[in-house]
TrEMBL record:
<dbReference type="Pfam" id="PF00999">
    <property type="entry name" value="Na_H_Exchanger"/>
</dbReference>
<feature type="transmembrane region" description="Helical">
    <location>
        <begin position="89"/>
        <end position="108"/>
    </location>
</feature>
<dbReference type="GO" id="GO:0015297">
    <property type="term" value="F:antiporter activity"/>
</dbReference>
<feature type="transmembrane region" description="Helical">
    <location>
        <begin position="295"/>
        <end position="319"/>
    </location>
</feature>
<feature type="domain" description="Cation/H+ exchanger transmembrane">
    <location>
        <begin position="22"/>
        <end position="390"/>
    </location>
</feature>
<keyword id="KW-0050">Antiport</keyword>
<feature type="transmembrane region" description="Helical">
    <location>
        <begin position="183"/>
        <end position="205"/>
    </location>
</feature>
<dbReference type="GO" id="GO:1902600">
    <property type="term" value="P:proton transmembrane transport"/>
</dbReference>
<feature type="transmembrane region" description="Helical">
    <location>
        <begin position="60"/>
        <end position="77"/>
    </location>
</feature>
<dbReference type="InterPro" id="IPR036291">
    <property type="entry name" value="NAD(P)-bd_dom_sf"/>
</dbReference>
<keyword id="KW-1133">Transmembrane helix</keyword>
<feature type="transmembrane region" description="Helical">
    <location>
        <begin position="31"/>
        <end position="48"/>
    </location>
</feature>
<feature type="transmembrane region" description="Helical">
    <location>
        <begin position="6"/>
        <end position="24"/>
    </location>
</feature>
<dbReference type="InterPro" id="IPR006153">
    <property type="entry name" value="Cation/H_exchanger_TM"/>
</dbReference>
<keyword id="KW-0813">Transport</keyword>
<feature type="transmembrane region" description="Helical">
    <location>
        <begin position="331"/>
        <end position="352"/>
    </location>
</feature>
<feature type="transmembrane region" description="Helical">
    <location>
        <begin position="364"/>
        <end position="388"/>
    </location>
</feature>
Length: 618
């Protein structure tokens, strides 16, 4: 056991972030890796037990972290996004949640052997999925927009509802036990107050941002301070209503469409990711060996199986009858329902209060909850990608390229990518500049890529690379800087700056925008001039007989290397600072000078043009 709390905090952070990296590197479900890391550090190796070591600070730390995570998730609940999905989402979070509560409670009573009181309390809690587990799965699986949005909205909205249902069931127990109606009235009053408090906090923060009462450097700290205050005030009045309050606050801010909130989104996402990583490790590391052994109880196994294969699918199918969801979408949504941090934290709370009220069967709640959490995390984490692909709801395929700026060069580049079976989308705010792409059958999007509306109408899931290739250097840099959080610095590219005489732009290239494409001096003007003068996009496959060294030796001195498509399907754009290399099976694409036949035709056409001009003059 590590005695130093500082060392334990270091280890928790290292395991959390390290788990996220391992999950990204080997394409594994992050929550599964985090759970395993926590179990190894806690009950298996005995390095730590955060619940014991942190003492009274443990639960407040977990609660505040969950509040921040839920608030960050609710900031994505813009009503514009749910356009066309309003009915299915509403049915799932109301009728579907109610069915899941009833069916889950019946399973807890008849299969897990819990008393009715404990069964209905824990049954309400088990309807939750939550952003802590759903959002990482959605990032991993690359679902199509419709099922992804449904799962996201359900997870974030039902998270506080599930906790409140558990509180409501507990208050019903107290009412039936003590015959005191004030407990129920207090519950409804506290819930209404929590929603009102969240709305007031959201409106207040939004108004202060819009009127400039908070300086830019204080906006992020101010938001987090208000979130913590909002959660704490509501939670002190009645346990778990704080989750409802921060959800209401996040949704209020999301639908005010304040630019400052959008600017902070990536910072808040980073904080949320860090919290998810560390809190999940802390929770699993706090489990005991006895809790893990109890998981293999036949009643618990039977209950978990019922929740996975009967309760969830049945509640989704019944609640979405009459909606426009396809059978495939119902199957996917009916299967994916991983439980996470909220289920573990709230179950721990109710286990203690129910035991205090004399319900001895509540002693198995922690084991029961962890069994459901770990099983659903593993089962859904490893199956979501496979199932989505089988049902045709996955965006899986070779990584695509998003190109900003319509021109002769980008049209040729997009067509070449398309011929190599690489998904490509050409965007421009000018209908005229997209005319070449439309005439050649290239997929295009007419609209301003930096506009807020683009986020709702353009699905960027299939694209892993961004190429900003307009004639404006500053605009290219702005596009790359804006989308670096989505695509990453290594996958964001822009054309070489048009370095006019007297401009000192050397430092600008390295500090803002994306990575500079191709060779030095490959500006918009230069590339388009070459295409207009007959340069062609040439594809060459590297083989054992014709190696990359042979290719470089025979390449025309005026040719320009553009990109390579690896045998794995990955695209690698050539940049001035990279070391050029290619292996067997790679396809090299370059911009080559026109052939001699083409030059002869051009000379002939130029001669005819001059003859016509001379005839007019004479």
């Amino acid at each position: 056991m590590i005695d130093s709390l500082l060392l334990q905090l270091m280890l928790v952070g290292f395991l959390g972030v390290g788990s996220q990296w391992i999950a990204w590197r080997f394409r594994l479900p992050a929550i599964v890796v985090m759970s395993i890391a926590g179990l190894l550090a806690g009950p298996v190796l005995g390095l730590m037990n955060p619940e014991q070591d942190f003492g009274e600070l443990y639960k407040p730390i977990i609660s505040l972290a969950v509040a921040v995570i839920l608030f960050e998730g609710s900031l994505n609940l813009d009503m514009k996004e749910v356009k066309g999905l309003g009915r299915p989402v509403f049915r799932i979070v109301t009728f579907g949640a109610f069915l899941s509560w009833i069916l889950g409670s019946l399973a807890a009573h008849y299969v897990a052997g819990l008393s009715w009181a404990v069964a209905f309390t824990i049954g309400g809690l088990f309807i939750v999925t939550g952003p802590t587990v759903i959002l990482p799965l959605l990032r991993q699986a690359k679902l199509k927009p419709r099922p992804a949005k449904i799962l996201k909205w359900e997870g974030i909205i039902v998270d506080p509802i599930g906790a409140l249902l558990a509180v409501f069931a507990f208050e019903i127990i107290l009412f039936l036990t003590n015959n005191d109606p004030s407990t129920l009235l207090m519950f409804f009053a506290a819930s209404a107050f929590a929603v009102f408090l969240g709305w007031v906090c959201g409106k207040g923060v939004g108004w202060m941002f819009e009127t400039g009462y908070i300086p830019e450097f204080l906006k992020s700290p101010a938001v987090f301070a208000v979130v913590i205050a909002c959660f704490t005030i509501a939670d002190e009045i009645m346990h778990e209503t704080g989750l409802l309050s921060v959800t209401a606050m996040g949704m209020t801010l999301a639908n005010m469409h304040i630019s400052s909130i959008a600017d902070m989104r990536h910072f808040k996402e980073n904080i949320s990711l860090l919290l998810i990583s560390t809190i999940f490790v802390m929770l699993t590391a706090s489990l005991t060996v006895d809790t893990l052994v109890e998981i293999f109880n036949i009643q618990i196994i039977g209950f978990v199986a019922l929740m996975l294969f009967i309760v969830r699918p049945l509640s989704i199918f019944l609640s979405t009858m009459g909606t426009d969801l396809s059978k495939s979408e119902k199957l996917l949504v009916g299967w994916i329902a991983p439980r996470g941090i909220v289920a573990l934290t709230v179950a721990s709370y109710f286990a203690s209060v129910l035991l205090e009220e004399g319900f001895e069967d509540a002693s198995i709640l922690i084991s029961l909850t962890f069994a459901l959490v770990f099983t659903t995390v593993v089962a859904h984490g490893f199956s979501i990608g496979w199932l989505a692909k089988k049902l045709g709801l996955s965006m899986e395929g070779p990584p695509g390229v998003l190109i900003a700026g319509g021109s002769a060069f980008t049209t040729g580049l997009a067509k070449t990518l398309e011929e190599l079976k690489i998904p490509v989308l050409l965007t421009d705010s000018s209908w005229q500049r997209l005319s070449r792409a439309r005439s050649r059958g290239i997929e295009s999007y007419h609209g301003e890529i930096l506009s807020e509306q683009t986020e709702y109408y353009l699905d960027m899931t299939p694209y892993e690379y961004l190429v900003a290739a307009t004639e404006l250097d500053s605009y290219n840099a702005l596009v790359c800087t804006t989308f670096v959080p989505e695509f990453g610095r290594n996958n964001s590219f822009q054309l070489s700056l048009s370095n006019k005489e007297g401009d000192d732009l050397e430092d600008l290239v390295h500090t803002i925008g994306g990575r500079v494409l191709f060779e030095e001096g490959a500006s918009w003007e230069e590339l388009n001039a070459r295409v207009e003068n007959g340069y062609v996009f040439r594809k060459t496959t590297i083989t054992e007989q014709y190696t990359f060294q042979d290719y470089m030796k025979n390449m025309d001195q005026h040719a320009m290397l553009l990109f390579s498509k690896r045998a794995s399907g990955k695209v690698e754009f050539f940049t001035p600072e990279m070391e050029y290399k290619a292996e067997n099976g790679d396809v090299i694409v370059s911009l080559m000078p026109p052939s001699k036949e083409f030059e002869k035709i051009q000379e002939k056409l130029e001669g005819q043009r001059k003859d016509k001009e001379n005839q007019k003059k004479s």
